[in-house]
Design a protein that fits this description.
The complex is a heterodimer of chains A (325) and B (477).
Chain A: H1 2-29, H2 33-41, H3 48-58, H4 74-77, H5 80-85, H6 102-137, H7 142-155, H8 159-173, H9 188-219, H10 222-229, H11 234-257, H12 266-272, H13 277-286, H14 290-318
Chain B: E1 2-3, H1 8-26, H2 29-40, H3 42-60, E2 64-65, E3 68-72, E4 78-80, E5 85-86, H4 87-91, H5 93-97, E6 115-118, E7 124-127, H6 144-178, H7 182-190, H8 198-219, H9 234-270, H10 272-287, H11 290-307, H12 315-349, H13 353-360, H14 365-402, H15 413-420, H16 432-459
Antiparallel strand pairs in B: 1-2, 2-5, 3-4, 6-7
Classes of the chains: A mainly alpha (325), B mainly alpha (477).
């Protein structure tokens, strides 16, 4: 198993390099730092001096790939590629356009993001699985039919409306919780209840329907028929056999999502004013801070790859039929 | 002067492809059989009726031109307006031009906010002024409610009448084609004994007519869905947004298709290093969170557009180019899901006997792929096509909110929501823009979801209750 994990880990490295090359291509080759400077400085006719100054302040004044002016290692190291892209591998993100350290921002903003993401994730998982099991238990009845109809209807509502509607109904009309804002510490709970509920509702339709198909697929299998034939109660079949085996596909999806919890939720965080990584990303996109967007792309990709890795490992752990090739 | 926008070409191309495809399907029984199953599903057909109504609006909105202005230029040629209009604009010209000063509630005759007006005798009052157009024909304000009710009733009667006429003709035509008496056919339709759920289709058309006719009549006199901050009619904005949603939902998949089909089949068919390379490519793209990749690409694209203003003579063309690029970007980030499915399927297919036989007979690779593999994976492509649509329409709204969606000047559900978001804080609340965007989007996406389910159930050879969904693009997160 260890050798397998190690090999899987090695696979991740070329992918990370690929991600890095894509971001480098997108951010520096398609558009030169000059374009970025011109856009940041605003006006159409900025002086070349101002552009040079902007670039020098942020370290974009180096050559792209090869610095002929330097000697030895400096030829490779004193380039935009090395300074801005390759350093991401060491999770050294450099500074945002406003001069603040991105690494520090990420470390402080990670916690509010997690405070929102982990409860949403856990509560969501429990609720979705129990509803999906319920629908599977009552399969081919009116309850199941209308449950699926409800799921499809819920799927058809944009996430934006869940947020806007929830904020209006619960915060403004009923004044139960504050509309937005965040405080660290135990006070955070009252700010987090609503976003968690909304995340729950927004994911409900798609997830319950998906999990239901997993369970139903499992129910059609031979061993379930055998279990019924030997006289097991339907609940025993459901919880003892179907839930366990049906959870395998759920588990892999779930484990893959865990590392991404760090990134937080783009929409919820910006609507509710939670100072997490999601709202950080949105702010960066809206103020066109390329350095931050670049860092978040890399961080997100690294976490996603980690998620795939964990999913593969967990898959092999829970399902002994999967062999380590 | 007709103007062909960038997105118009693929839209009409898509219509041509669809028509050609169905003409082809009609002549091939093995292709027609699954479609017949789709046609027999009542939810699927009701959804199709709704989708066709949306598509009609979108297509009328895809014929653009620049109206000629009066007067001639120095050479005696006609002068054209800078503004690009579509046929839809012409059809609903009153909605477009009759703008109020600011917010007004649906069907209102007075403005939403107080204004200072000077009376004839020189006195000044603060009041809710009458709207310039909404209910301007009313002499007495007390008639307001009665007039609205009467017009709506008139519309419903008219709609029901038009529906009755259409149903009569349709049933007669059907009866002729299947050579049965119209009366007998009508009875079996009413008792739901027909193969095709005609009753459900008729009823959904009735519902559409009973909404469309009163709204059309009322729209001539009032602002049916109210007006927004700068006084534009919300109904007009919603109608214009339909095209954007449809374009994003369809063109993106069209952009995706060549990549996904070619690379997916190649990976599965050739295996070896080609497979490795293609797998590496899509794993890499897949591992970047979708929204972030799209955001990065859109930011870059924005720089390009800003850098080359001379390419776009009008603002509409610039916005349209951005829409096209957005579709391309969405496509570039979403083709991976379909490619992976196709790879898996091709891996399975290439080991089957008939492909082995083709190899043994010395058929070239290209021919094996086009003749034997491609037709056998088309159902996957088709399912992916319809399943992705609703996800993309929803993604557009989210992306526009994040600021990496369509051009802010372009009408879309995302920009509507974005503009209306802050109005929730007003007291009394301005709810109608959001409600309109919600209703239109919900109906469109719900219909798309139901139709996609019907198509998937009919085409998926693994006949089961559900089926693994195709990964959805731009999942809000």
């Amino acid at each position: 198993v260890i050798a397998y994990i190690f090999r899987r880990f090695l696979y991740a490295i070329p992918i990370l390099i690929g991600v890095n090359l894509i971001t480098f291509g997108l951010f520096f080759v398609v558009n030169t730092p000059e374009d970025m400077a011109r856009m940041q400085l605003g006006a159409k006719r900025v002086t070349p001096d101002a552009i040079e100054k902007w670039k020098a302040e942020r370290g974009y004044d180096r050559p792209l790939l090869w610095n002929g002016a330097k000697a030895g290692v400096g030829r490779l190291a004193e380039t935009i590629f090395f300074q801005k892209s390759a350093k991401l591998f060491a999770f050294d993100f450099g500074n945002a356009d406003d001069g603040r350290s991105i690494g520090h921002e990420i470390r402080t903003r990670m916690w509010p993001s997690l405070a929102l993401a982990i409860p949403s994730f856990l509560v969501g998982l429990a609720v979705y699985v129990s509803f999906a099991l319920m629908l599977a238990f009552f399969r081919a009845t009116y309850l199941d039919f209308w449950g699926v109809v409800l799921c499809v209807a819920l799927m058809s509502v944009s996430a934006l409306f869940y947020i806007i509607g929830g904020q209006y109904l619960i915060s403004k009309l009923w004044s139960l919780v504050p509309i937005s804002g965040y405080q660290p510490g135990p006070d955070a709970a009252k700010f987090l209840v609503l976003p968690v509920l909304i995340a729950l509702a927004a994911g409900f339709g798609a997830e319950v329907r998906l999990f239901r198909t997993f369970f139903l697929e499992e129910m059609g299998k031979d061993y379930v028929r055998t279990a019924r034939a030997k006289g097991l109660a339907e609940t025993a079949v459901l919880f003892g056999h179907v839930l366990k085996n049906g959870s395998i596909p759920i588990l892999t999806g779930v484990v893959a999502a865990i590392p991404k919890l760090f990134l937080g939720s783009l929409l919820a965080e910006s609507f509710f004013g939670i100072p997490g990584l999601g709202s950080y990303t949105i702010d960066a996109i809206q103020s066109q801070d390329f350095a931050v967007v670049r860092s978040m792309v890399f961080l997100g990709a690294a976490l996603t790859i980690l998620g795939y890795l964990l999913a593969d490992i967990s898959y092999t752990l829970v399902d002994p039929r999967v062999r380590f090739e | 002067m007709p103007v062909v926008l960038w997105t118009d070409v693929p839209v009409w191309l898509l219509v041509a492809i669809t028509l050609g495809y169905f003409a082809y399907v009609r002549r091939h029984e093995y292709l027609a059989a699954p479609w017949r199953r789709v046609v027999r599903s009542a939810p699927g057909m009701v959804a199709l009726v709704v989708l066709l109504a949306f598509a009609a609006v979108g297509l009328v909105d895809s014929l653009h031109f620049r109206p000629a202005l009066e007067g001639k230029d120095q050479k005696g040629g006609a002068v054209y307006a800078v503004e690009v209009l579509s046929l839809l604009d012409v059809a609903v010209m009153p909605l477009k031009t009759r703008t109020e000063r600011t917010y007004s509630a649906p069907l209102a005759i007075r403005s939403f906010s107080k204004e200072t007006t000077e009376l004839a005798d020189g006195g000044i009052v603060r009041e809710f002024p009458r709207l310039r157009f909404g209910g301007a024909h009313l002499k007495d304000e007390a008639d307001h409610g009665r007039d609205v009710a009467l017009t709506a009733l008139q519309g419903i009667v008219l709609g029901a009448f038009a529906w009755g006429l259409a149903v009569w003709f349709a049933t007669a035509a059907l009866a002729r084609r299947s050579r049965v008496a119209a009366g007998a056919l009508w009875t079996s339709i009413r008792r739901r004994r027909t193969d095709v759920p005609w009753l459900a289709i008729y009823l959904s058309v009735l519902a559409l007519a009973c909404i469309a006719f009163p709204v059309a009549l009322l729209a001539g006199k009032y602002h049916v869905l109210g007006t927004d901050k700068v006084g534009q009619d919300v109904l007009y904005l919603s109608l214009k947004s339909i095209r954007t949603g449809l374009v994003i939902g369809t063109l993106t998949t069209l952009v995706t298709l060549p990549f996904a089909v070619l690379l997916g089949i190649m990976a599965g068919y050739f295996k070896g290093w080609i497979d490795d390379a293609i797998q590496y490519l899509y794993t890499t793209i897949n591992s970047i969170p979708g929204v972030l990749l799209i955001a990065a690409a859109v930011l870059i694209m924005q720089v390009y557009i800003d850098k080359n203003p001379e390419l776009f003579p009008t603002a509409a063309q610039r916005a349209d180019f951005r829409l096209l690029l957005l579709c391309a970007i969405l496509g570039a980030t979403t083709w991976t899901g379909l490619a992976r499915l196709l790879r898996g399927e091709s891996l399975k297919l290439r080991e089957l006997e008939y492909i082995q036989a083709a190899h043994a007979l010395g058929v070239r690779h290209g021919r094996v792929i086009t003749r034997h593999i491609l037709p056998n994976v088309m159902h996957i492509v088709l399912i992916a096509l319809v399943m992705d649509f609703s996800g993309l329409v929803l993604a557009e709204a989210v992306l526009s909110y994040v600021g990496v969606g369509v051009d802010p000047s372009m009408n879309s559900f995302g920009t509507m929501i974005n503009a209306a978001r802050l109005e929730m804080a007003r007291d009394p609340m301005v709810w109608w823009t959001l409600a309109a965007a919600f209703a239109f989007m919900f109906v469109l996406v719900l219909a798309a979801n139901l139709f996609a389910d019907a198509v998937r159930d009919a085409f998926d050879p693994r006949v089961r209750v559900g089926g693994a969904p195709v990964p959805q693009a731009g999942a809000p997160g």
